[in-house]
């Protein structure tokens, strides 16, 4: 497991060039506000506004609040959608982190892709027999199989505890458009909390989409042979989020790459471009064991990785990650109070 995230000078320059050319091509991207004018809001937007406002208003004043986004967005190919392009993310990072934020005393708004992993439920979705694979019938009664009983008991107890304490609110999305409308709505509700609110943007957000007005209305027919797709670039919503929606909140974005040479320059570039607090960089194939925290105040990234022993004991990297982030968030709150 390599923890090296540096590249030699020549490599670094070619990586920078790649980053710059992608920045140049971003100039052609549509304005984020236009996106909201041209796309339809999700059916649960009004419900989410009401529930999130109520949830936030009911929290004790000293309790920090985290918006955790999780799972991948889809982009439909047809208005009457039969086919869509999906973004990779199981929701492990988000669901495990949400559990850790709750354990650290946060109220959590969990904005997640419908059907992706959810806090306290996440260990029970991989059985080939579905939920029935965890159950048995003994003396005519349905019971949890003994090998699952202890963990399920623990998870159910925690889930109920946080729900009863009004510490956890779940809001779901499916498409890119659902996600963006909900993200903006929830951000604007959190904005007045300032430093007390954290945004932890772990969802995998599509970079390309087909605008509604040029999308096929009905199912694309296969009769005319191969399908060529041309997709527009999605505006980077981190810019309005940081600048306009939640300028005083504590914002953590993620940077996912598959090429290790691109990771550090792209993470640094995101920090410089958007000016938020932390970028967490991860590589697709090692994301469960190592992540790097980039900030504008530290010259080198902070490496967080878990040991073989952690892995054997089913201890997730999010356990350590969230403890570190909660500490930094507290510092941010204290520094903001002194201003
Ligand atoms: O769920 P798992 O299987 O555990 O996987 C976790 C993860 C790998 C998905 C997660 O750790 C992660 O890296 N999430 C971010 C993935 C992503 O969208 O990365 P990106 O490099 O494409 O985007 C960087 C940031 O810009 C993200 O915070 C994203 O929210 C934001 N973005 C992206 C596209 C867009 N149009 N607007 C944005 O603001």
UniProtKB/TrEMBL annotation:
InterPro entries: CoaB-like_sf, DNA/pantothenate-metab_flavo_C
Residue stretches making up the DNA/pantothenate metabolism flavoprotein C-terminal domain: 199-287
KW Endoplasmic reticulum (keyword) present: no
Keyword terms: Ligase
Enzyme Commission designation: 6.3.2.51
Species, as recorded: Coemansia spiralis
Biological processes annotated in GO: coenzyme A biosynthetic process
Name of the molecule in the record: Phosphopantothenate--cysteine ligase cab2
Family designation: Belongs to the PPC synthetase family.
Molecular-function GO term, any one: ligase activity
SUPFAM superfamilies: CoaB-like (SSF102645)
Pfam families: DFP
Top-level enzyme category: ligase
The encoding gene: CAB2
């Amino acid at each position: 497991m390599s923890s090296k995230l540096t590249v030699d000078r020549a490599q670094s320059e070619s990586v920078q060039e790649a980053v710059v050319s992608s920045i140049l091509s971003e100039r052609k991207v549509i304005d984020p506000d236009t996106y909201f004018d041209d796309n339809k809001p999700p059916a649960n937007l009004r419900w989410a506004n009401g529930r999130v406002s109520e949830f936030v208003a009911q929290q004790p004043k000293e309790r920090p609040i985290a918006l955790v986004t999780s799972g991948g967005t889809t982009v439909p190919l047809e208005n009457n959608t039969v086919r869509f392009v999906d973004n990779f993310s199981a929701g492990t990072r988000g669901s495990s982190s949400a559990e850790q934020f709750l354990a650290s005393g946060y109220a959590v708004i969990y904005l997640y892709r419908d059907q992706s992993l959810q806090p306290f439920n996440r260990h029970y979705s991989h059985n080939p027999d579905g939920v029935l694979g965890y159950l048995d019938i003994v003396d005519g009664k349905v019971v949890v199989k003994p090998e699952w009983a202890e963990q399920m008991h623990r998870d159910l107890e925690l889930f109920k505890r946080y729900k009863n304490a009004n510490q956890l609110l779940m809001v779901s999305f499916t498409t890119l458009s659902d996600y963006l409308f909900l993200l903006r709505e929830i951000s604007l509700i959190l904005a007045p909390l300032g430093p007390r609110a954290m945004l932890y943007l772990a969802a995998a957000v599509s970079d390309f989409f087909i605008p509604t007005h040029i999308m096929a209305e009905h199912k694309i027919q296969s009769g005319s042979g191969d399908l060529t797709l041309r997709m527009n670039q999605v505006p980077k919503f981190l810019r309005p989020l940081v600048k306009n929606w939640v300028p005083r909140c504590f914002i953590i974005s993620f940077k996912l790459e598959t090429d290790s040479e691109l990771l550090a320059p792209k993470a640094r570039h995101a920090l410089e471009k958007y000016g938020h607090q932390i970028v967490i960089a991860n590589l697709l194939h090692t994301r469960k064991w190592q992540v790097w925290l980039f900030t504008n105040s530290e010259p080198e990234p902070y490496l967080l990785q878990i040991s073989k022993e952690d892995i054997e004991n089913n201890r997730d990297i999010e356990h350590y990650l969230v403890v570190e982030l909660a500490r930094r968030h507290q510092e941010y709150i204290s520094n903001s109070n002194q201003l």
